[in-house]
Amino acid sequence: MKNSKSLKKLVAILIIAITFTSCSNDDDNATQTPTPTPDTLNIVETAQSVDDLSILVDAVIQAGLVDALSAAGDKTVLAPTNAAFTAFLAAKGFNSLSEVPNDVLTQILLNHVIAGTNYQSSDLAGSTGYENTLADGPNSTKLSIYYDGTSGVSFNGGAEVVIPDVATSNGIVHVVNQVIDLPTIATFATTNPALSILVDALAYADTGAPTVPYIATVSDGTAGPFTVFAPTNDAFVNLLGDLGVSALTDIETATVDTVLLKHIVGANVQSSNLVSEEVTTLGGPITVDASAFTLTDGSGTSNIITSLVDIQGVNGVVHVIDRVLR
Question: Which of 66, 247, 278, 291 stands 20 to 30 A from 303 (CA)?
Fold first, then answer.
């Protein structure tokens, strides 16, 4: 009888112990904090985590842009590799990054940042166009950058994306194989295939005398600034047809020189600052109609192509037109 009572007491103790343990485990499960998910790195932290971007990180620190590139907000950043920076420094005659003046370095780096949007490589695939970077141009403008997504993705005719779509907490990073120098008018004329005949015309005019000289001037970042009304290839083809010739070289260089001068204004005038009035180009007067977005000279009227305006370089701005002025 005594053993029966002892057994009953042991069973009761075990039931109490099991019940207490079960309640304790339930309490623990109810109060347990989930394992935190690591925060996504920002642009600077992402670059710091990649060995092949170490010179870029050093450049950002030297230029004092860490806070700007760590701040919240959409950004598309083109990140040059160490090899790209090494080649750029050598081409510019610098032995090390520290030799680059900070104001110059700052603008170079800002020329790799498209603010306000996170461009995936798929957004650019199959298309070409222009965006503005954070780098400064004349008259408080921002410099343009030309993208070409027709075969891979490249910028300003040289920097190719080698690692696309690196997600960060404040933007998208595309690793590129070239440092993108500050663009000139020549940069945009030579990188857009639709303006190749204009480049040919500039080079041909330079073979004559007198000449501006055109290629040297539009390539010189310290020249100008100028406003260039740039005729498309189709515009030049139509001009040759009107003149009854088959090639630019069938026209005297002096005539080509005169025609080209009529497309250049000695000031940086963005499309928002165009007014309806007579404007003096380097080759004579033309009439601007700011509401119709047209230019008129003695031979007719040309349309300014609204999707191809305000292409801003360090030495001037380009507006593409559909007819050659003469």
Answer: 247
